[in-house]
């Protein structure tokens, strides 16, 4: 991911926030908080929060390895950990496996915890974002080698947040996709659901002709507030999202 790793994170960073990275095992988060809220103690607390988020998921996977491998909706027991049930439900609604929601679920868990300490917070996990904001913000869209890449952004208003902004691509990043979309971006108050639906929509896109189909699919899922799909120089969009030019 060398080139992508260095560039896509710039698309959501905000000048008024202090951004830093926290890594715990495979979890690599880019986090933005109000500058006055940042401290070494906050970073250490976030590390512990990530471990507390990961532990029940890791323990469950050790007991049920099929959960990790499933590419279609997977049923989990009623006494499964909360994060496991959240991922399974998101996968069920999107028609994909539960691990399609893992990055969004972790971003949401950690983001909601940090939001109790900073009124403005952005947590990005592999292109999946949790945002809570008190001001208008722009989130740029990276779509690989599409002519639209880094040319447009989503404008997010405070009343829309907490908000999940999740991206899937058949060309960029490590996540599994069976499609060829340059980017599919999905909005939802549930970051796990937005993550799973972005994967499902991305799987539908093989050519420009599939963009409308992918966006229509997202529009039918309760809890999804917007979807944007890009392939080459074509774009389709639906829902409550304001698309604006990206300042050069």
Automatic annotation (TrEMBL):
<dbReference type="InterPro" id="IPR003374">
    <property type="entry name" value="ApbE-like_sf"/>
</dbReference>
<protein>
    <recommendedName>
        <fullName>ApbE family lipoprotein</fullName>
    </recommendedName>
</protein>
<dbReference type="InterPro" id="IPR007183">
    <property type="entry name" value="UPF0280"/>
</dbReference>
């Amino acid at each position: 991911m060398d080139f992508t790793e260095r560039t896509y994170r710039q698309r959501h960073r905000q000048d008024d926030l202090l951004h830093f990275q926290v890594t715990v095992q495979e979890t690599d988060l880019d986090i933005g908080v109000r500058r006055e809220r940042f401290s070494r103690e906050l970073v250490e607390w976030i590390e512990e929060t990530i471990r507390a988020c990961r532990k029940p998921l890791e323990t469950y996977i050790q007991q049920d390895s099929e959960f990790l491998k499933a590419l279609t909706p997977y049923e989990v027991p009623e006494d499964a950990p909360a994060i496991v049930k959240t991922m399974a439900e998101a996968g069920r609604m999107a028609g994909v496996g539960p691990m399609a929601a893992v990055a969004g679920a972790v971003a949401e868990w950690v983001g909601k915890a940090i939001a109790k300490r900073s009124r403005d917070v952005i947590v990005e996990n592999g292109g999946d974002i949790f945002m809570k904001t008190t001001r208008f913000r722009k989130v740029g869209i990276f779509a690989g080698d599409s002519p639209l890449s880094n040319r447009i952004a989503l404008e997010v208003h405070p009343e829309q947040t907490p908000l999940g902004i999740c991206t899937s691509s058949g060309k960029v990043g490590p996540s599994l996709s069976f499609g060829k979309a340059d980017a599919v971006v999905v909005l939802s108050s549930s970051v796990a659901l937005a993550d799973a639906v972005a994967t499902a929509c991305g799987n539908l896109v093989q050519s420009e002709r599939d963009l409308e189909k992918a966006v229509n699919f997202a529009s039918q899922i309760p809890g999804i507030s917007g979807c944007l799909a890009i392939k080459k120089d074509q774009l389709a969009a639906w829902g409550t999202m304001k698309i604006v030019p990206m300042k050069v």
